[in-house]
Specification:
Structural class: mainly beta
Low-confidence stretches: none
CATH class: Mainly Beta
Helix content: under 10%
CATH superfamily: Jelly Rolls
Order of helices and strands: EEEEEEEE
Distance between the termini: 26 Å
Strand content: over 45%
Number of strands: 8
Largest sheet: 8 strands, antiparallel
CATH topology: Jelly Rolls
Length: 121
């Protein structure tokens, strides 16, 4: 297994309707580039993983517990383990980076799609 890969070569995971993730799994963390279609919604959920993220392109409205923020490029978040949260993509969609610790083992059950060119950069 190589220590290197290209974003376009990673097989996307259909995490939610209108939400694709390209993930790299390490022993202690999952790093994902996530593409959200315009107006897509990541419904309220929680997971055992702590989650850190940043918006690269577009915008999202992000809720962690009861705190809500509209975020554009450079906006960041911290979702503690087991905290309820949800995301609504803006009218142009969004591309974000998420890091999860421990790794997202539950994503191993999601069927991958054929590689395709990422929407960003």
């Amino acid at each position: 297994m190589s220590a290197f890969d290209e974003l376009a070569g990673l097989r996307p995971l259909g995490i939610w309707d209108g939400v694709l993730a390209r993930a790299i799994d390490g022993e202690e963390v999952t790093l994902a580039v996530v593409e959200l279609d315009p107006g897509s919604v990541v419904a309220e959920h929680s997971h055992v993983n702590e989650q850190l993220g940043i918006v690269l392109h577009g915008s999202v409205t992000f809720r962690v517990r009861s705190e809500v923020r509209e975020l554009g490029p450079g906006g960041t978040w911290l979702v503690p383990a087991n905290a309820p949260h949800e995301v609504h993509a803006g009218p142009e969609g969004a591309v974000v980076i998420d890091a999860f610790g421990p790794p997202r083992e539950d994503w191993a059950e999601i069927e991958t799609q054929e590689p395709q060119a990422p929407r960003w950069p």
